[in-house]
Every structure is written in C-alpha cells, then in structure tokens.
Amino acid sequence: MSTDTTPCRYVDGVRVPLSPAELAAFDAERAPRPPTAAQLRAAAADARWRRETGGITVSGISVHTDDRSKMMIMGARIQAVADPGFVTQWKGADGQFIALDAATITALSAAVLAHVDACFAREGEVLAAIDAGTVTTLAAIEQAFADVTAPWG
C-alpha cells in the first residue's frame, strides 16, 4: 500500500501521477468557490442581526439590544413620557443596576433606536453593494458592520 498522497490516476491498474494540466484541473476543482450573491445577502443579514442585538453603550450605560430588551426599553419610555417623574432601576448589560429617570430613559431609547436604524441602513448599503458586484467576500461584509456609525463604502 502506497502512502504517497500525490494526486494520480490509474491506467490498467498502474498508478500514474497527474500531468501538469490534469493537476491544474484537479486543483481548480478543489479550490474554494467564492460565495454566491445569495450567500453574501444571507451573511449581510446575519452580520446586521449580530450588530443590532450585540448591545451598545449610552452615556456610560451598557445596554442590551436584543429584541426582549428593546421591548422593555420601549415600555420604560412609554411610562417616562406619561410620567416625567418616573424613575426605575435598570440592569445594564454589564450586570450593574442604575436608577434611570424619565429623561435618561428617553435618551437611552432614542440611542437604541438610532443604533437599530444604523444597522438596517448599513444592511441596505451592503445589499446594494452586493447587487452592484462591489462586495464579493464575507470579510468585506464583516468589515462593513464593524462600526455602523462610521461612513462605509
């Protein structure tokens, strides 16, 4: 039994190394394929979701931005608008509790909304770039979402 791993073919039971042309064709078949537009679009949606729900810091307060947290923030904002004297204990993404007054809750919810809007706006930009053929790699998508507040493209 041979331990040689050189690509080969067998002719009449005899092991024959591939010619340079055959080897090039063999390597081309094994080469990783670039992602399709559909794969890039799915990767952009995933990158947007990870950035959107990954949390932010607002005026030194570490804030969860997952869907449940966004609903809780909106509920607190509704109460803050109804009662300007409203104060609540809030648990930040860092595990620390902080008393939030109505004005802070309103500012925090506005910052979360701006963050979510920026994430979706960036996804739209990336999808347009995929369609235009200017974004062709997964790395380019990750780079686009590294900082959704910075200009891109």
Per-chain topology:
Layout lengths: L7 E4 L2 E4 L2 H11 L6 H16 L3 E3 L2 E3 L3 H16 L4 E5 L5 E5 H31 L5 H7 L9
Antiparallel strand pairs: 1-2, 3-4, 5-6
Oligomeric form? single chain
Q: Share of helix among residues?
A: 40-55%
> What structural class do you assign from the helix and strand content?
alpha+beta
Instruction: Write out the strand line-up for the largest beta sheet, numbering strands in chain order.
Output: 1-2
Which stretches of 5+ consecutive residues score pLDDT under 50? none
Name the helix and strand elements from N-terminus to C-terminus, one letter apiece: EEHHEEHEEHH
Between the first and last Cα atoms, what is the distance in angstroms? 55 Å
Beta strand count:
6
The tally of helices reads 5
What does the main sheet amount to? 2 strands, antiparallel
* Tally of individual domains: 2
- Indicate the overall shape: elongated
Radius of gyration: 26 Å
Let me know the average pLDDT: 93
Content of β-strand: 15-25%
Q: How would you characterize the overall build of this protein?
A:
Pfam families: DUF4376. InterPro entries: DUF4376. Residues 38-141 form the DUF4376 domain. With 153 residues, the protein is an alpha+beta fold. It folds into 2 domains: 1-31, no CATH class; 32-144, no CATH class. The chain is 53% helix and 16% strand. The protein contains 5 helices and 6 strands; from the N terminus they run ββααββαββαα. The chain has helices at residues 20-30, 37-52, 67-82, 102-132, 138-144, and strands spanning 8-11, 14-17, 56-58, 61-63, 87-91, 97-101. The strands form 3 sheets. Strands 1-2 form a two-stranded antiparallel ribbon. The chain has a two-stranded antiparallel sheet with strand order 3-4. Strand 3 and strand 4 form a beta hairpin. The mean pLDDT is 93.
